[in-house]
Amino acid sequence: MGSSREREWYFIRKLRSHEQPERRQRIEIQVLDDAGKAEAVGYIDEETDSLEINGVVIPWEILQVAQSKDYGQGDYVDSEGNSIEPFKLMGLEELIAKRLHAGPAPESVIWEAEKSLGVVFPPSYRRFLMKFGAALGEGFELAGLFEQGGEDEPPQWNHVVSQTLRLRRASHHQLPPSLIAVLGDGEDHVYYIDTTRRRADGESPVVAIGPGTDNVVIADNFSVFVIRIHKGRIAF
User: Fold this and answer.
1) Are 30 and 41 in contact (CB under 8 A)?
2) In a designed cystine with 28, which of 15, 40, 75, 81 is the match (CB 3.0 to 4.6 A)?
3) Is there a domain that residue 236 lies in?
4) How far is 177 from 182, CA to CA, in rounded Å?
5) Position 220 in a domain
6) DSSP bridge partners of 165
7) Residues 79 and 65 in one domain
8) Within a 10 A sphere around the Cβ of 58, how many other Cβ atoms?
9) How many helices (H) and strands (E) does the chain have?
10) 49 phi/psi in degrees, rounded to 5
11) Distances in Å between the alpha carbon of 120 and those of 75, 179, 203, 215?
């Protein structure tokens, strides 16, 4: 898509729908440049809200159809009657900014945490720590880094180092030291960043571990994971 990925608004022309064998609805699209010419082709998967452009799947961005009050123009159609709509792609930062968060963690604190756990945080999780520290939202409580109070003061946030080390001890150190515990589901499953599966871009997947679930990949990276938690679309 070139430089268009940096725009706030994207104009998408819907062409036709495809009913998939697994009953997912995929809408064929063209992404338009500012002059209205098609600069990329792809699909919208309505079930997962993922966007596939030129063969690249982008599930970590939430597709939101802009209302006329948001954009000022509203929906329109081309000469063949195809619907053209402005979309806004919301990423992790916009999502977390609307929730309670602890505040930025200093770089020195992040380094110390990595040293304590013996890991290197992937870029998306590091950005989360540097901007938000830790976060609370409906349906999730993301572990992170923050200034801890006194011993008698109950913590408001989950500390990623304390939580990960506690889970390592509880497993009698059978839990691989490469895992970073970022969220518990309130029951028996815990979600970890698995740093042994680091990709060329430095990102690592989030996996679930619990009864009947052993290292099941939930999301390709931390950003995708948070958005799927937000949308209630975590499945083992």
Assistant:
1) yes
2) 15
3) no
4) 14
5) yes
6) none
7) yes
8) 15
9) 6, 15
10) 55, 30
11) 45, 10, 10, 19
H or E stretch including 85? strand 83-90
State the residue range of the domain holding 75.
Answer: 2-90
Count of Cβ atoms closer than 10 Å to residue 229 Cβ = 22
Judge if pTM exceeds 0.70: no
pLDDT digits (tens, 9 = 90+) for 6-42: 445 556 666 665 555 554 566 777 766 666 667 767 7
Indicate the residue among 26, 56, 90 that finishes a domain: 90
What are the helix (H) ranges across the chain? 68-71, 92-97, 107-117, 123-132, 160-170, 222-230
Local structure of 165: helix, strand or coil:
helix
**120 and 38 fall within a common domain:** no
Measured between alpha carbons, how far is residue 106 from residues 61, 132, 133, 150, 227 in Å? 27, 10, 9, 20, 24
The structure tokens listed for 115 are 């040293």
Q: Are residues 106 and 213 in the same domain?
A: yes
Alpha carbon distance 85, 105 (integer Å): 39
Give the three-class secondary structure for 190. Answer: strand
Burial of 21 (0-12, 13-18, 19+ CB in 10 A): exposed
**What confidence score (pLDDT) does residue 19 get?**
54
Retrieve residue 86's tokens: 């402005």
